[in-house]
Write a structure and sequence with these properties.
This protein is mostly helical. 77% of the residues lie in helices and 0% in strands.
C-alpha cells in the first residue's frame, strides 16, 4: 500500500466515524479526486506557461524587458492568489445556496463578490504598484520601470 493510498482511501477518509452505507473503492476515490482536480491543475500550468512565453517573447528586446516581466510576475501571482482564495469562499457560499434550492440567493451571492474581488485587486495591486512605473529608482536597468508599468497594466 502506497503512502498516498493511506490518506486517500475510504477507511482513511472516514477516520473514527462508522460508515453509513457502502464505501467506494480507493480506485473510485482517486478517479473522483482526479476529475475534480485536473481543471485547476491545467489552469495553474497554463498561467505559469503564459509568464514563461511572455518572457521568451520579450527576450530579444533586452535585459530590461526580461527584468520588467520578472518584476511584474510577482504581484500578478499575489493578485491571483487573493482572487482565487476569494473564489473558494464564494464557491462555498454559492454551493450552500444551491443546496437550499435558492437560485436567486446563489446569484445574489456570486455577483457582488465578483465585483468586490475585481475592485479589491484593482485598488490594492494594480494602481499602487503600477502607478509609479515611470520612476527609475530601484529598477536594475533604465527603461525597466516604464516597460514593467505598461506590461503590468496589461496583464492585471
Amino acid at each position: 500500500m502506497s503512502v498516498a493510498s493511506k490518506f486517500i482511501s475510504a477507511p482513511a477518509l472516514l477516520g473514527k466515524y462508522p460508515p453509513k452505507g457502502e464505501l467506494p473503492t480507493t480506485k473510485e476515490l482517486w478517479k473522483k479526486a482526479f476529475f475534480v482536480a485536473w481543471p485547476s491543475t491545467v489552469e495553474s500550468f497554463l498561467v505559469a506557461l503564459v509568464g514563461m512565453v511572455d518572457t521568451i517573447m520579450v527576450s530579444n528586446l533586452g535585459a530590461y524587458a526580461i527584468a520588467a516581466i520578472g518584476l511584474t510576475n510577482q504581484p500578478k501571482f499575489i493578485a491571483l492568489a487573493v482572487f482565487m482564495s476569494l473564489n473558494v469562499a464564494v464557491s462555498a457560499l454559492v454551493a450552500r445556496r444551491k443546496g437550499e434550492n435558492d437560485q436567486e440567493g446563489a446569484s445574489g451571492t456570486a455577483y457582488p463578490n465578483f465585483n468586490y474581488g475585481y475592485h479589491l485587486i484593482d485598488s490594492n495591486f494594480c494602481r499602487p504598484y503600477y502607478s509609479h512605473g515611470r520612476q527609475s529608482r530601484g529598477y536594475p536597468w533604465p527603461g525597466c520601470g516604464v516597460f514593467s508599468h505598461y506590461y503590468g497594466r496589461l496583464v492585471l
